[in-house]
Amino acid sequence: MTLLHLASVTRTVLPPDQPALTILNGVDLDVEEDDRISVVGRSGSGKSTLLNLLGLLDTPTSGVLEFAGKPVKQYSSRERDRVRGREIGFVFQQFNLLPGRTALENVIMPLLYAEGRQFWRRRAIAAEMLEEVGLGHRLESLPDRLSGGEQQRVAIARSLVRGPRLILADEPTGALDLDTGQSVMELIDEVATRTRAALVVITHDPAIAERSRDHYRLDHGVLTRAEAS
Ligand SMILES: Nc1ncnc2c1ncn2[C@@H]1O[C@H](COP(=O)(O)OP(=O)(O)OP(=O)(O)O)[C@@H](O)[C@H]1O
């Protein structure tokens, strides 16, 4: 199933008193269930702008953007929020954990918006997820008592606890040392495989990009498919 379909997508901004700036230009991309995609680009190439579109945080200036077969511009903003919360998991470089809350409380947070069984079982589901990322023994720890790698694991557990169909990772290992970064990437891969989610990793790090199956390069807002190295 095609989760995301982008055809001839452009994103233009109008900075005050300046000519229009085209940040993304003619982007074509299909993301299927189970895909492992990396997008590599230099600073300023348009990666964050692309991520905002893929994550339904923004809409294209022109072109087609569909999520699960439906044009995103047909979604109301409430529907977009709902789809984003339910179907998309974001992993960022910054862990963005709530500092005064335990690991378990942080992971429970997205389940407060869940319905039915997921809501009523939220503590157990969050604990299982932390177990899965290797932190079953740190449920009650506050973020400042955890290492960077552990904090990223909590953030991953929180992003993926609702079982999203699409995982968007933006420089997920940017704040970690090499070895910790590799094990965090392995973890993201494992969870994506178990839950049959698609994974799109946006990075400037070729070693992280190499782990994917399909490789893309973003250069001055133009996305091209690259051969695996
Ligand atoms: N609202 C805006 N107004 C003006 N320029 C913008 C706006 N948003 C983005 N840009 C410019 O568009 C280009 C692409 O921005 P974007 O943030 O997508 O790049 P990036 O690849 O994510 O960069 P980085 O890796 O440094 O975060 C940059 O030159 C940026 O300055």
TrEMBL record:
Any single GO molecular-function term of the entry would be: ATP binding
SUPFAM superfamilies to which the protein is assigned, alphabetical: P-loop containing nucleoside triphosphate hydrolases
Look up and give the organism this protein is from: Herbiconiux gentiana
Q: What is this protein called?
A: ABC transporter ATP-binding protein
Q: Which intervals hold domain ABC transporter? A: 4-229
Q: Does the keyword ATP-binding apply?
A: yes
One Pfam family of this chain: ABC_tran
Family the UniProt entry places it in: Belongs to the ABC transporter superfamily.
**Highest taxon above the source species:** Bacteria
Q: Which UniProt keywords apply?
A: ATP-binding, Nucleotide-binding, Transport
